[in-house]
Task: inverse folding
């Protein structure tokens, strides 16, 4: 979380946030921590199932 706070204070991202409406209709940010993932491993996912070779 400290690194996210540091990024938020850098001038370039601040300027980009102030001008985002010139190129985008909006944005949505999700900050999360994956504690556990599970499934039947039928397809690849960003959080692979334990024992999944991929």
Result:
């Amino acid at each position: 979380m400290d690194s996210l706070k540091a990024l938020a204070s850098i001038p370039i991202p601040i300027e980009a946030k102030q001008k985002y409406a010139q190129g985008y209709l909006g944005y949505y940010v999700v900050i999360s921590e994956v504690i556990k993932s599970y499934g039947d491993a039928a397809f690849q996912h960003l959080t692979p199932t334990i024992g999944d070779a991929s």
